[in-house]
Design goal:
73 strands, 8-stranded mixed beta sheet, 7-stranded antiparallel beta sheet, 1007 residues, mainly beta, Immunoglobulin-like, 0% helix
Amino acid sequence: MKKVVIILFLFFAKCVYAQTDTAFWFAAPEISSDFGYDRPIAIRVSSFQQAAIVTVSQPSNASFVPVSITLSPFSTQTFDLTSQISNIECSPGDVVQNRGLKIKATNKIAAYYEVNVNGPNPELFALKGRNALGLSFYISSQNILDNASEYNPAALSSFNLVASEDNTIVTITPSKNIIGHTANVPFTITLNKGETYAAIASSRLANQHLDGSYVSSTKPIAITLADDLLNGGVFGSTCRDLAGDQTIPISVLGSEYIAIKSNINFPYDKLFVTATQNGTTITQDGTLITTLNTGQSTMLTVNNPSSYIKSSLPVYAYQLAGAGCEVGAAILPKIDCTGSNSVSVARSSNEDLYITLLVKNGGQGNFLVNNNVGIITSAQFSVVPATSSQWYFARVFLPLSLYPNGSVIKVDNTTSLFQMGLLQGSSLGLSFGYFSDFNTVKATVLASPTQPCVGANVSLSAESIPSATYTWTGPNGFSSSIQNPVLNNTTITQSGYYVATVTVPGCGIYKDSINITVLPKVFTTINQSICQGTTYAGYGTAGQYIDVFAAANGCDSTRTLNLTIKPKSFYTINQSICQGQSFEGYTTSGTFLNTFVAANGCDSVRTLNLIVKPKSLTTITQSICEGQSFEGYTISGTYINTFVAANGCDSVRTLILTVKPKALRTIVQSICQGQSFEGYTTSGTYVNTFLAANGCDSVRTLILTVKPKTFSTINQAICQGTTYAGYGTAGLYVDVFTGSNGCNSTRTLNLTIKPKSFKTITQSICQGQSFEGYTTSGTYTNTFVAANGCDSVRTLILTVKPKSFTTITQSICQGQSFEGYTTSGTYTNTFVAANGCDSVRTINLTVVKLPMPNLGPDTAVCFTNNILISPGIFDTYLWQDGSSLSTYLVSLAGAYSVKVTNTCGTASDTINFTNNSCEVFFPNVFTPNADAKNDFFKILNATNLTNYNLTIYNRWGEKVFETTNYSIGWNGMYKGKISDIGAYVWYCNFKKEGVQKFIKGSVLLVR
């Protein structure tokens, strides 16, 4: 499984981030829904230096409502798509559907699709943006693990296609049978933008997986690999786990890869290398392994902590890794001139988290984690074999306590590009992936602006690549050796192409160019006359005006305006009227201008100065106290009266009268005896009159209650060691409290003390009995209530006498009896011992079966070497030729029989050997007793074998022997000592007649 695989691709930033883009295409594979192992599903997105708006859509599904989120810089959020799972997973097979997802962002982000997070079948698929899109693909797959058989719907392997453009014609040649199509027969489908197709294997068996299938298209597509609920039995247990990744097109492949070993059980990590051209040689750690033709694959084992793979032509490298027997898989990035100097990931579970790092020599000590030094150090790195010490690797554990679930982990290298992988998981499930650029370093340039105006400055910039040097050339002999030069005060003659040459040590020289067009400015002159009081182009007075605007080309347009002014004519009328009258239609005082057209074509302006004599409007606001009057009015209200003013117009008076009330209030108050309130000390009703804030009377009525103090006496007796009211000794105590009425309550306490009583009991019992609830020897103290109501303390001294136990071990033959028992087992009887307690006798009885030798079934074998046979372990042996050894060496076809005896009898068995073709053969028994006969366990008919590896394990899983030379066998020794008699498991890899094979079995060691 994987975690976020983020790819390097950012223009002109200070840092280059892993696997970032603004658009991603993805076809979600069908995962078995049994036990809910296909959900939840989610897309996780991460931003970098810039905020981004991210939208998830299905371009070919109009019913899918796009969803968007906003990411702040350096943040991670999640789209939970579980509710849409039936419209997202690509199923069934061999059907064109509208299930494709498109993730689009306003700035560069990283994205991955995650299945069953925190469940037993987790996996994530890193989205590789434009590096996932291509026209030609070979399919990678593991071929040693079956998909588990017990699930419904069935768990299968698949590859899933999504088109990024309409009218995409796709040709598929499956290497094995898929649903709807037979192996090696090409067929064609047509996809529109966002449509998907699932190629699903017809069989769950490992050797029927789809590695080597070929896919080509007329327009860019993306492909997802999936291997559901893999049976991890090869790795020693019953694990079931999902593996998969988004693959890459042939155009992005390389010929150098490095794999870092994970925590998977024996037989360790596997690399599946697939050739894209005939005659491709494969070398591992400096040793030539094989030669492949187009579409062929070979499996390599990562026996060492890291492994270097080199091919003569571009290949796919697909790693099967894991933890225990839980597995995950990932497409590896090539190492030649790829990598990142900053990678960000988000931890998505509480399981163990490791990161794996690859960096060229010199970059080991320059790593930061979340801008902190000392987390990743050079001491954690080791050299990768067969790389001439050029490459170093490390595996770093990130504890949950420091990096909790949901936290963002940012890894930087201040000097070097690096590749980063991630292993997250445990015995429940595993995620595995690589965080590296899947494309080669290249030169990429930008300019700002690309169409400057004359006189403007232009900033040229090139992608930041560690250790690179930069050279710029351009028009008029321009040159510069800095990464981001500036063109100052540009002229028309500086238009043209500017070329950046980027030299990357160890990678090569790369070029890119950009066209700069310097745009001219514009100049115009206008002569204009206007009437006084008007404007032209915003100007209203005579003069010359120069303005600068933006022309159609975006540059300055300079305009010169010569402006003259023609005069207006003016006359004035003065008039007065009373309020409510009108003159020339005007009814309000003011100066009114009317404009006519004069002979010069300009305005003739008449000014009317109109005075409207007002009615006299007077407002009086008055307040009085309740019971008073003003102008004869005694009630609050508004009163209007009209008179004739001195100017001959109306005089209107408005009276706004407010009658203010007297203030009346009552206070109910209680105090304690001896206190006072407002000078009063006795209960009663008191009336006082004051002047209120409104200037009127304020009458206050006080109802006062004086509450009395209380006194009480308590006579109390308590037990020794207890307390009453906080007191534990006899005496007279006086306390003052606050009573229920809030006043002082005085309490007098007369306290006396009653004593405790004590006694001891000595008692013995038998083991298994109890006394007063106790079953073990010891001293126990209990407390009861005595007649005086106080504690009575009893001490119990208890002795527990033991039972006696006897064990008898006895063997009998089948059909016999001992003490009345006839079957194997453990029998327990109980008697009375001298101390009066039980005496328990245990009989461990073994019933020995009659001898049953087994030479195995009749067998057709190749007799290039002798074959050692054994009937099992017995007391005596008698073979057909009179031999009495425990084993027999067979060299010819024929019948072989043996008679064996043990303490319970005699029996025999016969085996027939016939000749057969000479396949590889290992014996099932050997006798390393230094008698020069069958002293070594090894292959018996090794001919023309290469790539040979034999490993042997004991019953505890320890590797007791390993060899790559088929002429060398195991002598039964481990760590310098003789190994125990018993069964041992062996595994063997070899190539015979050009075919790589893997066999396994068990061997019985006898002496």
